[in-house]
Specification:
The protein is an alpha+beta fold and about 270 residues long. It contains six helices and ten strands; from the N terminus they run E-E-E-E-E-E-H-E-H-E-H-E-H-E-H-H. The strands form four sheets. The protein has a four-stranded antiparallel β-sheet with strand order 7-8-10-9. Strands 1-5 form a two-stranded antiparallel sheet. A two-stranded antiparallel ribbon has the order 2-3. The longest helix is centred in the middle third of the chain and has 21 residues, at about 145-165. It is globular, with a radius of gyration of 19 Å. It starts with 11 loop residues before the first strand and ends in a 14-residue tail after the last helix.
Length: about 270
């Protein structure tokens, strides 16, 4: 999810597992917006001899995943590789901090840490982009603390108002970046960084076609806005592990919400703290 500072002119490589610093990110640079959610359907049944009986409202059901146990990891525990955080699902605790934040030895625009498993997958993906396609990728944004997200979101509210902010940035406690499982990537040229058009660049096309090989899901796609509430973010990658990412890719399952049978989340619930 967006919220990083503008892309720097120079991108430098840094060492692995350097001392942890506060996640930094702020000036508005890209977009994410909500859309209407399809309504849940409700039906009725009746017979010639009995009064109509209302049937329960349908609830989402998990997508069939042959060979994959969808109960293997929690969708609620913020430390879980399969945690689902969106506009209806708040991290608990809301100020959660991952225990194993590290800095992988890759190129950065903004030097921000991520979970160890995320880093272990990102390094070979960046290397493959270079060796297979001659492309240079860099980290624009990774882990952001709750307090940092408070500042990021406040900046968007100041510049666009709350409705505009909600169309662009996650409210504190609702950002995948806080889990340490998400990373925003850019190309070394800075072209279309944190913009929808990044998906049309050589780097964006390569990432879109290959991220699943390394355990990443392009979380916000052009056709998932009614489900996630965010516009396409081809640069926002969520680590979920190779097996699940490969399955989602092969089966054409667009989102974690669809996979796990969770409700669509295009808007925040009334009363959500901002």
């Amino acid at each position: 999810m967006i919220g990083g500072v503008a892309v720097a002119a120079g991108i430098a490589a840094v060492g692995v597992n350097a001392a942890l610093g506060a996640g930094r990110a702020s000036a508005p640079t890209a977009s994410a917006s909500p859309s209407a959610t399809p309504g849940a359907s409700a039906g009725t049944s009746a017979s010639a001899s009995a009064a109509p009986v209302e049937t329960p409202t349908e609830t989402p059901t998990p997508t069939a995943t042959p060979g994959i146990d969808l109960s293997a990891h929690s969708n609620d525990d913020p430390a879980s590789i399969w945690v689902v955080v969106n506009k209806l699902r708040t991290l608990n605790p809301v100020d959660y901090v991952p225990a194993d934040l590290v800095y992988p030895d890759v190129r950065y625009v903004n030097r921000q840490p991520m979970r160890q498993a995320t880093a272990d997958a990102l390094v070979p993906m960046f290397a493959a982009a270079s060796s297979e396609a001659g492309l240079t990728l860099a980290v624009q944004s990774a882990y952001r603390s709750y307090d940092t997200q408070v500042s990021v979101y406040a900046g968007w509210v100041s510049s666009r108002g709350q409705a505009g902010a909600d169309a662009t940035s996650a409210r504190p406690g609702h950002s995948e970046h806080q889990t340490g499982w998400a990373v925003d990537v850019v190309g070394s040229s800075g072209t279309c960084a944190l913009e929808i058009c990044w998906g049309d660049t050589p780097e964006g096309q390569w990432v879109g076609a290959n991220a699943h090989r390394f355990g990443f899901l392009v979380r916000y796609k052009p056709d998932t806005t009614p489900i996630t509430g965010y516009e396409s973010e081809p640069y926002h990658l969520r680590y979920i592990g190779v097996e699940l990412a490969q399955h989602l890719h092969d089966a054409g399952i667009p989102t974690l919400e669809r996979l796990f049978g969770l409700p669509d989340a295009p808007d925040y619930a009334p009363g959500t703290v901002s």
